[in-house]
Design a protein that fits this description.
301 residues; mainly beta; Beta-galactosidase, Chain A, domain 5; eight-stranded antiparallel β-sheet; 3 helices; 7% helix
């Protein structure tokens, strides 16, 4: 559909419209009494979210993000699907799967009685996606925007054989300064420390940041909280259908090499990702489904 057709069929007066954004990509622009958000139809990628009672966005988007067909966007809520990290056997296939860089189709929008706005999209099958994921399946992302942002990723197995699924919502959060925050909710949880060569460790207390962090916390369904004294708020990340939580900051050396963080963008973000990875990958039975839901909100300290 072109923009006119999208707006005619799925636009919502005073709440949701479709626009052409950077790089010619199409975005849903959502604005209601509770919050504002932008969602790129490529990747079903929520790029920004700000509750109306917050001066700063909750979801961070790099000022240097690149927008182009088939390319990932630095920031927001990238969808890692149908695998997390490198593919188990095909080194040339994209890290974190292909879902975040391919087209998705809008299937539904709604102005809810609560005042929130909802949009649903499904991933568009193609020769590329079928070559890398031959399993008969469908995946839907549903985003609900208001004072909270709620994202639900539903994978359905349409075939007669089970398949194994890895996934994550690779969410970037806006913080005052990475060195002045702490993350709670993971005390006593075991994790894989990728910065330390994949060593298995156990978390003790809250998590602070003074260098690169890349950890996969396993077997945890706990809510995580980002405590941010500089912005005088806590961000609450509550999840269901997820047994893995990933914490990531590239710190300056790695961020400088990536080219789309800018000179100090890495200081203003942290990733707290909800998913199923490593030991927690999911087997979806024939005819079955798996649902991953994350609710994001902010409140004053």
């Amino acid at each position: 559909m072109d923009l006119a057709q999208l707006n005619d069929r799925f636009g919502l007066a005073d709440q949701l419209k479709f626009i052409e954004g950077p790089g010619g990509l199409v975005f849903a622009e959502i604005d209601n009494a509770g919050g504002t958000a932008y969602l790129c139809l490529q990747g079903a990628h929520v790029t920004t979210f700000r509750p109306k009672d917050q001066d700063e966005p909750v979801i961070w988007l790099s000022d240097y993000a690149k927008f182009a067909a088939g390319k990932s966007i630095r920031g927001g809520v990238p969808v890692c699907w149908p695998w997390f990290g490198p593919h188990a056997s095909e080194a040339g296939w994209p890290g974190h799967g292909f879902a975040r860089t391919v087209p998705w189709r809008v299937t539904e929008t709604a102005a809810l009685a609560s005042g929130d706005t909802e949009i649903a999209l499904t991933l568009v099958d193609s020769e590329q996606t079928r070559a890398q994921w031959p399993h008969p399946s469908s995946v839907e992302l549903r985003a609900t925007v208001g004072r909270h942002l709620r994202v639900t990723l539903t994978t359905r197995n349409l075939g007669d054989q089970p398949f194994v699924l890895g996934e994550a919502l690779h969410t970037y959060f806006r913080v005052g300064d990475i060195g002045a925050i702490r993350v709670t909710g993971l005390d006593g949880v075991g994790y894989v420390d990728k910065v330390d060569g994949g060593a298995r460790k156990t978390q003790a207390g809250a998590i602070g940041f003074d260098g690169e962090v890349d950890r996969v916390y396993l077997g945890t369904e706990s809510t995580c909280v980002i405590e941010d004294a500089q912005l005088n708020r806590r961000i609450v990340v509550a999840k269901q259908g997820s047994r893995s939580t990933v914490l990531w900051t590239p710190w300056h050396e790695k961020a400088d090499k990536m080219g789309d963080f800018g000179p100090d963008g890495w200081r203003r973000m942290v990733c707290v990702e909800s998913g199923n990875a490593l030991d927690d990958i999911v087997t979806v039975p024939a005819g079955g489904s798996h649902v991953l839901t994350v609710d994001y909100s902010a409140e004053s300290l």
